[in-house]
Amino acid sequence: MDFLQGQLEERKRRLETAITLAPSNANAEALLREVDSALDRFATGTYGLCETCHETVEPDRLLADPLLCYCLDHLTNSERAALQRDLDLASELQRGLLPPADLTVDGWETSYHYAPLGPVSGDYCDLYPYGGSLFFMLGDVSGKGVAASMRMTQLHALFRSLIGMGLPLADIVVHINRFLCESALAGQYATLVCGRADPGGGVELFNAGHLPVIAVQQGAVRLLESNGFPLGMFCDSAYAPDTVRMGADDMLFLFTDGLSETVGADGEYGVERVARLVAQQVAACASEVISKCLEDLRRFAGSNPGMDDVTLLAMRRAG
Ligand SMILES: [Zn+2]
């Protein structure tokens, strides 16, 4: 509160100077009236309280805009419209980070499905061909909404820039884990699978606290389980790669818990059901596997609404 009061007093001084220099500045005058009114609220002890419900206005919002007079539940129409515009823009920006649909590169055929529950998502999905390999990333930032989506965009930028520097994937994972540990909000972390698929079928992948990756090799299913902590949890976590060799028509399937934790009349969807379903799609191409999976999910969930973001990624080795 002292910090905010200091900020407001500083703002008042600057506005007064601006008005002295340009006396006909109507914007500055209107702003000065708002700042004065906020300072009055400090004097009467009502600063930071919502004018409608008299509850505390969210502190993070006040820090971003010390002139706020209403809590999130009681925004004015224009504030609500401004917030919606911000969210729409953020949503568009996040969609713009997604890789091309049905990307085929160097003997790998891919398809993904990315469905945020709200306007923005903490789910992360990327495919990045670089240096003759196809890098793939799929993860889930803890929490929901804007904070999680900001972390997701950071992961996107970090992976792409570090891959672009030609670093080994093992080093990239360690760097990003340390970066997140040093800068994360308390309790914010990301479960994530990242890997490098080579044109010859060799795959190196890291699973940091994420759900298993389903590998279907010659019709046999293997679950590649996590062997490390989520990124952003412990600075000195070590990460060991899984290496697999994928033959013609073999498939890797990655997903977030929005799929496996969907609840239907029979309980939770579960990893086993995902594995069974993927294993049945021997003859299907990557995009067919995704649509079969979504069909099955809809059938399973019935009228239950989704509770989480759902992201799926299928990668099939061309025959
Ligand atoms: Zn309120």
Summarize this, please?
With 319 residues, the chain is α+β, with helices and mostly antiparallel strands.
Q: Secondary-structure map with pairings?
A:
Elements: H1 2-21, H2 26-44, H3 59-64, H4 77-96, E1 104-105, E2 108-115, E3 123-130, E4 133-141, H5 145-164, H6 169-183, E5 190-197, E6 202-208, E7 213-217, E8 220-224, E9 242-245, E10 251-255, H7 257-260, E11 263-264, E12 267-268, H8 271-279, H9 286-301, E13 310-317
Antiparallel strand pairs: 1-2, 2-13, 3-4, 4-5, 5-6, 6-9, 7-8, 7-10, 10-13, 11-12
Helix pairs in contact: 1-2
The protein binds zinc ion.
Residues 50, 52-53, 55, 70-71, 73-74 line the site of zinc ion.
Main features:
9 helices, 319 residues, binds zinc ion, single chain, five-stranded antiparallel β-sheet, 13 strands, alpha+beta
Describe the structure.
- By secondary structure, this protein is α+β, with helices and mostly antiparallel strands.
- The protein contains 9 helices and 13 strands.
- It has helices at 2-21, 26-44, 59-64, 77-96, 145-164, 169-183, 257-260, 271-279, 286-301, and strands spanning 104-105, 108-115, 123-130, 133-141, 190-197, 202-208, 213-217, 220-224, 242-245, 251-255, 263-264, 267-268, 310-317.
- The strands form 3 sheets. The protein has a 6-stranded antiparallel sheet. Strands 3-4-5-6-9 form a 5-stranded antiparallel sheet, with helices on one face. A two-stranded antiparallel sheet has the order 11-12.
- α1 packs antiparallel against α2.
- 33% of the residues are buried.
- The site of zinc ion (ZN) has 8 residues, from loops.
